Amino acid sequence: MKTLRTILTLIPLACGGGGSPSGPDELLSDELSMPREPTVALDGFASAEQCGLCHEAHYLEWSTSGHAYAMIDPVFRAFVAVRQEHYGGKQDMFCLQCHSPIGTRGGDIVPGFDFADLQPITLEGVTCESCHKVASLARPYNSGHVLDPDGPMRGTIAEPIISAAHESQFSPLHGAASFCAGCHDLREVSGLVLERPYGEWQGSPAAAAGVQCQGCHMPSYEGPAVVGGPTRRLHRHTWIGAGIPLLEGFLTAEEKASLRAEVKRLLASAARVDITADTSVRAGDVVDLFVAVTNNIAAHNFPTGSTFNRQAWVEVVVRDSDGRIVFATGTLDAGGEPSGSSLAAPGAPELLRLGSILVDERGEPVLFPWRAAEHVSNALGPLRERVFRLRVPTGRAARGPLSAEARILFRAFSPTALRALGLDEYAAGLEIHEVSRDRIRVELRPP
Ligand code: HEC
Ligand code: HEC
Ligand code: HEC
Ligand code: HEC
Ligand code: HEC
Known about the structure:
Strands 10, 12, 13, 14, 18 and 19 form a 6-stranded mixed β-sheet that branches. The chain has a 3-stranded antiparallel β-sheet with strand order 9-11-17, with no helix packed on it. The chain is 25% helix and 23% strand. Strand 1 and strand 2 form a beta hairpin. By secondary structure, it is α+β, with helices and mostly antiparallel strands. The chain starts with a helix and ends with a strand. The radius of gyration is 24 Å and the shape is globular. It has 2 domains: 2-9 and 19-239, no CATH class; 264-445, Immunoglobulins (Immunoglobulin-like, Sandwich). It comes from Nannocystis punicea. This is Multiheme c-type cytochrome.
């Protein structure tokens, strides 16, 4: 195990930040989650649809979730296609090890694989048995789960009733945050940490209070775990996050509308903005605006997860008494990106970015994580507050009162990034969610 882990971390250095490895020995592998030879049989796993015959509610919820979407997601597929080309197939298991642990360990994901040739169970992505056939956790990142296809179905019902379909077993691991960590904490081959909601959770106020990921992302309700069974404390299998599937047809219009409402509700609970200023200023002075941003989540950063793909920022717009904009940051530019100071707009107010960016050795932003040397994050820690000070110049002729409005905005992807991936058709469908908003009036005394 130790030698294989060493290989995992040494290969990227040998590749020198992105060159194509050559020769069969350089196939990127790992005994647990990216084995050279299959360690499980694909036909040892059942389709979610079969589970749905008895576990109706769980099946219906799962089918609308990101977990069911993990392998058909066009954004995922577009990234994988670029990586396949870049490494000539040698690293093809890397991106698939969490999006389809069964397909990757079962020999369906091979160097140079084509999504069109994959087995149905692989395309089910994070399907029922990729979680319920987990026996233990070898590491809290990079698909660290130990799968046991011949074992019982594990869950958190302490005394499950006997079923002819499968054996059941109580598993405390399934009720713990570390269970999610196996896939939600992600390190690139280079060792660069890309996603770490679990790392953020450890040491958070939520962890101290014993609140696990499931407590927020799998809220409980009463109902039968199986058609006709006794009433249990069930856990929602919708896993609401910040994403809304872009692929047409994955959700019905009704499902999409209800997911959108849930995502908006979750995001509205995530963070808050408060804006303050000197209450009385003379026209011609510089007004100091203080924009305080607070992460309301006790469990992890805002934003969290794939923050380098996500966009979270603060938009601030100041208008004079005629409604004319006298100052703005974070409004959309012609390309649909939040504006702020850049080479294109020198001297403009800085963009108040809350997400993260990946940069190469020269400090230039990069889209593909495997080309990144550094991950620079502005995300707010659990329950943390940050105050931005903005200096807004006013003219001597300016007429008050000024109105200043601040909004925290969130978007799942940058339209520029989607266009760079050849996904123009989805760029138009991206939605900007308002997380929080605050507004003040600033009186202006004559100069
Ligand atoms: C450690 C497990 C793991 C590995 C390995 C992994 N992912 Fe993911 N991926 C996830 C998780 C978990 C999410 C959801 C995170 C979130 O929404 O914040 C995700 C989300 C994504 C998304 C966003 C999906 C959407 O529509 O919102 C893309 C794109 C993606 N991954 C691409 C990749 C690529 C490319 C690779 C290989 C470089 C990769 N992933 C490797 C676990 C993994
Ligand atoms: C023929 C009906 C049937 C089918 C098909 C079925 N199950 Fe079950 N399952 C049950 C019954 C009955 C229970 C016990 C429910 C209870 O005690 O309330 C159960 C319990 C469970 C539990 C809870 C275990 C625990 O101790 O917490 C999980 C998880 C589970 N099933 C997953 C699955 C998955 C995944 C599939 C598909 C591969 C599946 N089941 C297929 C009938 C079925
Ligand atoms: C106290 C409630 C709470 C707990 C506990 C919690 N989360 Fe979250 N989570 C949220 C909220 C609110 C959001 C939406 C804001 C955001 O995206 O940061 C969110 C968003 C997410 C997202 C989507 C991020 C994105 O932009 O795609 C992922 C993935 C996630 N959480 C994973 C986890 C994991 C893993 C754990 C456990 C280690 C966890 N969460 C624990 C409240 C919680
Ligand atoms: C991403 C992992 C994951 C996937 C995929 C998943 N489950 Fe679960 N499931 C869990 C966890 C975790 C729990 C226990 C949550 C807790 O106790 O906090 C659970 C609980 C259950 C239970 C026990 C009753 C309950 O609601 O607590 C059943 C039955 C079940 N799942 C069936 C299914 C079926 C059927 C599918 C596929 C249609 C499925 N699960 C997909 C993680 C998963
Ligand atoms: C076997 C790997 C795996 C496990 C285990 C797993 N996840 Fe995920 N999860 C993923 C992947 C991959 C995605 C992203 C799918 C996509 O959109 O492409 C995801 C997406 C999500 C999202 C949606 C994020 C968004 O942007 O909307 C949430 C929320 C989430 N998972 C929560 C959890 C929680 C909570 C647990 C633990 C109970 C868990 N997951 C366990 C792999 C996993």
